[in-house]
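Fold sample X.
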Amino acid sequence: MPAAKTAWPFSPPALTRYTARSLALAVWLALGGCSLVPAFHEPEMAVAPTWDAEQKTASNPATGGPWWEEFHSAELNDLVARGFNRNFTLKAAISRIEEARAVAHVTGATQYPLVSLGGDFQRKNSSSTTRTADVFGDASYELDFWGKNRAAADSSTALANASVFDAQTLRMTLGANIATTYFQVLSLEDRLRLAQSIADDAKQVLDLVEYQASQGAVSNLEVEQQRNAWQTFVAAMPPLRQQRDAALYQLAILVGVAPQGFKLQASGLQSLIVPEPASGLPIGLLRQRPDIQAAEARLQSANFDVGVARAAYFPSLTLDLQKGIDTLTGSGIWSLVGTLAQPVFAGGQLDGQLHHDQAHVRELADSYRESVIEALQDVETQLSASRELDQEFTLNQAAVTSARESARLAQVRYRLGTTDFQTLLIVERTQYQAEDTLLQIRLQHLQAGVGLFRALGGDFAAINLANAAAGTDANLAASSSSFQASRP
C-alpha cells in the first residue's frame, strides 16, 4: 500500500523566510537523530589461559618479521614475493576489496544531499505563442532521524573490511602453500638422489655377485635376488620424478607463472632450518587470525542490518529544494517540498526482514565462535606436530646412522665371506627405508613449522592488500581502522 504523502508549495516571498528555518530544522534533526542499532558485544568464548601442547625452549627461535624469512632461503623469499605480486587468485581477492569498498561508497552516499542541475524549454501555440526557458538547481535530502542510512553505510563498511581480512587470509594461506610446496619439491629431489645412490650401490653389489657366480662361488639364485633388489631401487625413481614434476608445476601456478620452463635453483633441504615461533597466549589469537577478524566484521555488518530493519518501521522525511531562473523573463523560481512517509501495511515485509536480520546475527555469532575454536584447534595441532616431529626426526637420525653402519659392515663381511647373502639384502633395504623415512620426516617437520606460523596468523606485518595494485606497502591493520571507528 503506498505510503501517505503530504506536500507544501510555497510562494517565493514566503520561501525566503522559510528556507532558513527549514534548513536549521533539518540540521537539528540530522544531528539529533537517534540510532536503532543494537549495542554490539563480541560473542563470549571460554578460552583457556595456556596451550595444552606447551612449547619447549626454542632451539631456533623466530626473530620476527616476515615468517618465510625465518627459514633462511633466499629462493623461498623470492618465490613468496613473486606469489604475492603475481598470483591471480590473490589479485582477484584484491579486486573484491575494491568492489566491496565501492559498494560501501554507494551505500554511504544516501547520508548526503543529492544535488543536480537541470533546465527545460517549452513553447506553446494557441491564441498566442508562449515560450519558457528555465535553468534550476535541485537538492534532495532524506533526514536520517532514525539512523537508517548511517546503519546501512556502516554495514557496507564492515563488509568491505571483511573483504580485506578475507584477502589477508588468502594471502596468508598462499604464502604457506608456496613454502610447503617448495619444500616438497626439494624433498623429492633429495629422495631421488637417495634412490639413485642406493641403486648405484646395489649395482656394484650385483656386479660383485655376478663375478662370484662366474667363479662358482655363489649360485644364480643370489644373482637374481640382487638383481631384483637393484631393479626395485631403480623402479622407485620414476614415481618420485612424477611427484616432483607435479609439485614443481603446482608451485609455478602458486607464484603466478606458466609451468613450462619453471625451475628451481636449490636442490635439497640441507641448508634449511626449522624456526620455532612463539605461540603467545590463546586469547591473543583472536586479534592475529584474519579469518577470525573477518567473521567479527561480518557479525558487525549483520548487527547494523538489524538497525536498518528497525528504522524501517518509522516515518521518513525527505526535503526537496529547487531554485532557478527563467532565462527569458529573468524571474526567479523557488520550490520547497517536504515528503513525509509512514509505513502502514506491508504484508509482513518489515517483520520478516527484521526477523531475518536478527536470525542472521545469531547465525554469524555461532560462525564466529566456530572460527575461534577451529583456530585454537589449528594451533594446538601444529604445536603438537612440531613437538613430536622434532623428537621423531632426532630418533630417525640415529636410526639412519645405525643403518648406514650396518650396511657398511655387511658389505665388508660379505666380501670376506663371513656373512650370508640374505643378510646383505636385508641391510640394503633397511638402509634405504631408514634414509627415505628420514627425508620424509624432515619435510613434515619443515611443513609443520610453516603450519604453525599460518595457524598463529601468518605475517603480522602484512602488505596492505587494498593498495597492492598501486604498488604501495603498509600495515594491513590500518585498513581496518575505519571499521573499528564505526563501532556503535
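Fold sample Y, listed below.
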Amino acid sequence: MFQSLSKNLEKAIKSLKGQGRITEINIASTIKEIRRSLVQADVHYKVAKQVTDAIKQKAIGTNVLTSVSPGQLFTKLVQDALTDLMGGMHSEVRLTGHPAIILVAGLQGAGKTTLTAKLAHYYKKKNKTPLLVACDVYRPAATDQLKKLGTELNVSVYTEPEEKNPHTIAQNAIQAAKQNAIDLVIVDTAGRLAIDKEMMQEIRMLKESLKPSETLFVVDAMAGQDAVTTAQAFNEQLNFDGVVLTKLDGDARGGAALSIRSMVDKPIKFISTGEKMQDLDLFHPDRMASRILGMGDVISFVERAEEVYNEEQQRRLEQKIKTNQFNLEDLVKQIEQIKKIGNLKEIVSMLPGLGKITQDLPLDEDVFKSCEVIIASMTPKERKNPHIIDRSRRERIARGSGTTIQEVNQLLKQFDLIYKMMKKVHKEGPSFFSSLPGLFKKVR
C-alpha cells in the first residue's frame, strides 16, 4: 500500500547524507520533497503541511549527536511525525456489557461483512464467544455470505430471513446471546451513503437502541480522499468510536490511512491486509510509521508467528535444525505455517530490509505453488534426503511436476539457502535480521 510513499520518503531523506549538521538551508529541499511525497500519496494537503511544518520545527531545534548522522536523526523525526499523525498510540477496543456489542457500519463494498467475520475470528482467539448478527436486510447475499463465513469459523450466526426490520433482528439477537451465554455480539449492517437520510436515520436509531460498546466505521483504504470525506460525513451523523481500514494490501497510494485520524479525530483501531480471516491486525501508529519508512515491524511479525507456532512445534523445528535433519518435508510444513500467518507481501514488509528488495517481486500465494508441486513429485526418500537427487532424479521430478529441470534446480538451491538461513537464525537470534537482505538477494 505504501510502497510509492516509502520510496519517495527514502529518496527525500537521502539528500541529507553527508551533511555535517541540520540547518534550515540544507533541510529546505528535503521538507519540500516530503510534503510533495505525502500529497502524491493522497494525504490531504493541509495534513501534509501540518506534518512537514512540525518536522521542520523539531529538526532545526535539535542538536545532532556525534554518534548519529543528520540523515538518521531526520528519519527519526519523520517517524515520530508520522506516528503522531496517525494517532500516536494504539487505541484499545472497548468490550463492556453482557454481552459486549460491536456495531459495524460503512459504505457498500467497503468489506463490512468480511470484516465482521474477521472480528469474530480475532476475538474467538481471545477466548470470546462471538455471535454474528445479519442486519443487512437489503442485500440477501450479505446474509448468505455471513452464514458461510460463520460456518467456516465455527461461529454462530443469527438471522431472521422473514424479518425486514434491522432493529427487531438486533434486539432478538441480543436476547438469544444472553440466553446462550454468548459474551460478544457483532452486528453487520447494510451499506449506506451519508447523503441517504432515511438510511442514516436507521443506523442512528440502531445505535441508540443497542448502545454498543464500540461502533466501528469500515472504510476502503483504496478510496483515497473520498474515504476521509465519507468518514467525516458518517461521523457527523453517527459519532462512531473508531475506524477500520480495509484493503491495505492493495496498490493504492494509501493517504487515507495517514489523513483520516487527523481529519476526523477518531482513532484507527484495526487494519485489514488481505482476504483471509487472520488478515486483521490492531492498528499501532508507531509500527505503521516504521514500516512506511522501510524499517520493518518485527514486533507484529512475532505476534503473528506466535499465533501459528506453539512451543512444541518450535522445539521440534529447532531440534531438526540443530541435528541437521531439516528436509523438504519440513519445508512444506513451514510453507503451510507461513500461509497461516497471513498475506506474504504483508509479512515481508514487516522484516527490516526486505521491503525494498522485494517491492517489485510478485509475492503472492502463487509463489509457493511450483515449490509444493515439485516437492509432491518427489519420493519420500528424496524429500527426506535432498542430497541424493541427482540429474536423472531431477529430470523425473520435472516431468512429474510439469516443470523444468531448471526450476527443480532452483528449488533445491533455495532449500539450501533457506536451511543455511535457519541455521543462522538458530545461532544468532535477533541479530539475524541484519543479514536478511543479502540472503534474499542470493535466493533471487
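Sample Y note: The chain has three domains: 3-85, 100-295, 299-443.
Also: The longest strand covers residues 100-106.
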